[in-house]
Design goal:
By secondary structure, the chain is mainly beta. It contains three helices and 17 strands. It has helices at about 15-20, 35-60, 145, and strands at about 75-85, 90-95, 100-105, 110, 120-125, 135, 150-165, 165-180, 180-195, 210-225, 235-250, 255-275, 275, 290-295, 295-315, 320-330, 330-340. Strands 1-7-8-9-10-11-12-15-16-17 form a ten-stranded antiparallel beta barrel. Strands 3-5-6 form a three-stranded antiparallel β-sheet, with no helix packed on it.
């Protein structure tokens, strides 16, 4: 089974650059005398919204594998994979009213980026010089085909270190790398603090209680050239996400359990930059006159919600294995990871 890591230029994106390039297939919807920009915005917004919102949830996950904190200069290094399940209602969006363009699918929903591969919506221009010309929009990336449970996975590398009594600093960082036509990178900081130590009535009880706050920034830039002539053609997405959680856990010799409840907030800004001369034959065989688009799309996607997490960790000497389940924004996120941990004695 191959794993299609999506980096939707909208986000985390993780969506192949081939799929990202398909957003330009909607551009002929702008080839009408009036209302073309509105057509394009509504179609792209419907196509991209689910993944733009979900990446904020994904990037807020996988920060911790225990509710306890390190001794000073103790540390852990781990790699996690956060896997979000895609509900069926996120794979399509309802047709929107268009200006001078008719959607030939009637009331049949259109595919979002999560939708089925190979199902291309067809449109016909009904107004202006291009009246009678048809074009087709993009299909989905076919998550059901590549990931049978219908999900999207994002890996994360991070480290945590004890800096003060009962306080850990976390850092996650991915240097800018290029995957196909997409350059992407992320970084984040977090802090976890043991609050049980401040309450004498429970300070000696055999469980951990802490609070965690984290911030993650993700940026992806994708080359969108190839369908239309022009310059500076790229899609740029930047996600800023925040989380605050209260953690509780119980550690045994080999196995430990942890859980958290808290709040997520994220905002993804997505811009299609550059000039596009939509007057060349596209994949649908159409030819459009007098259409020049300059930075044709810009939108922001925000999502805030409560979240809950339950998980377990296995510890074999310095080696740790963990997995947990998170419910957030009516989505399920499964996290699995491995790493190494160390705490100095007598500090």
């Amino acid at each position: 089974m191959k794993l299609k890591i999506l980096f939707v230029c909208v986000c985390g994106l993780t969506f192949t650059s081939h799929a990202q390039n398909k957003v330009t297939w909607f551009f002929p919807a702008a080839a009408v005398p009036t209302g073309g920009e509105e057509n394009l915005h509504n179609l792209l917004q419907g196509y991209l919204t689910p993944i733009a919102e979900d990446f904020g949830s994904l990037s807020n996950n996988g920060w911790y594998t225990t509710a306890s904190t390190h001794k000073r200069w103790g540390f852990d290094i781990n790699v996690t994979v956060n896997n979000i399940t895609i509900n069926s209602d996120a794979k399509t969006f309802d047709p929107v009213p268009l200006n001078g363009v008719t959607y030939l699918g009637g009331e049949t929903p259109l595919q979002t980026v999560y939708g089925k591969e190979g199902e291309f919506p067809s449109f016909q221009i009904t107004d202006g010089y291009n009246a009678g010309t048809t074009f087709r929009g993009p299909d989905g990336v076919g998550l059901d085909k590549d990931l049978p449970i219908g999900s999207m996975a994002v890996p994360t590398l991070q480290a945590g270190v004890g800096i003060l009594k009962g306080t850990d600093l976390y850092i996650r960082f991915t240097p800018t790398v290029k995957i196909n036509d997409t350059e992407l990178g992320n970084w984040g900081v977090g802090i976890k603090h043991d609050i049980k130590q401040h309450f004498s009535a429970i300070a000696e009880l055999p469980f951990s209680l802490s609070v965690f706050a984290g911030y993650t920034n993700f940026k992806a830039t994708t080359d969108l050239s190839g369908n239309y002539t022009g310059s500076g053609q790229e899609g740029v997405a930047q996600t800023n996400s925040y989380t605050f959680q209260v953690l509780v856990g119980k550690e045994l010799k080999i196995i430990s359990f942890y859980g958290g409840i808290g709040f997520n907030s994220s905002k993804t800004d997505y811009d299609i930059n550059g000039d596009y001369y939509v007057n060349t034959t596209d994949s649908g065989g159409g030819f459009y006159y007098g259409v020049q688009l300059d930075h044709p799309f810009s939108d922001s996607y925000s999502k805030s919600s409560f979240r809950g997490t339950a998980g377990m960790r296995l510890k074999f000497g310095p080696v740790i294995l963990n997995s947990d389940y998170t419910l957030v924004s009516e989505r399920s996120i499964f996290t699995a990871g491995f790493g190494f941990t160390f705490d100095p004695k007598g500090i």
